[in-house]
Design goal:
mainly alpha; 7 helices; binds zinc ion
Length: 150
Amino acid sequence: MNVSEYVERLYASFGKAPRPDLAEITPHRCCECDEVADRLSAYAARDVPEKDMHWLGDCLPLLSAKAFRFYLPRFIEFCLRVPNSNVEALINYNLAPSTDLDVGERNRFAGFSEEERRVVLEFVEYRASLPDHIYDEPYLEAARSFWRER
Ligand SMILES: [Zn+2]
């Protein structure tokens, strides 16, 4: 994969995803969710600093649908540019809806446009092609069929 070329296309494809307000970033209220919202709300997706991304590595399940759609490109970019981070270790589990979590208004996967779906699918197929991700195969397979729909 040509990372620089892909990342440009990734952000361009998500150009119409609306930016969430502070109160819209995490639907749950607790210290952790409040801190996630604080750290993200200061930045557009592309500008979230590396140190925050390391901290946010396991926070994708806490995001609202709106925040997930808006910030997902940054998590994808971070995976591609910073190998062996928390983000990279966990992203395969956050690329397809979870039956426990992604229900009703909490469904992080609702509302992606066709263009967004295509560019995420490219990332999923790239992840599935990596030899060291064999243990995550069921998750990547679920992600692949999800983003291919329609
Ligand atoms: Zn919480």
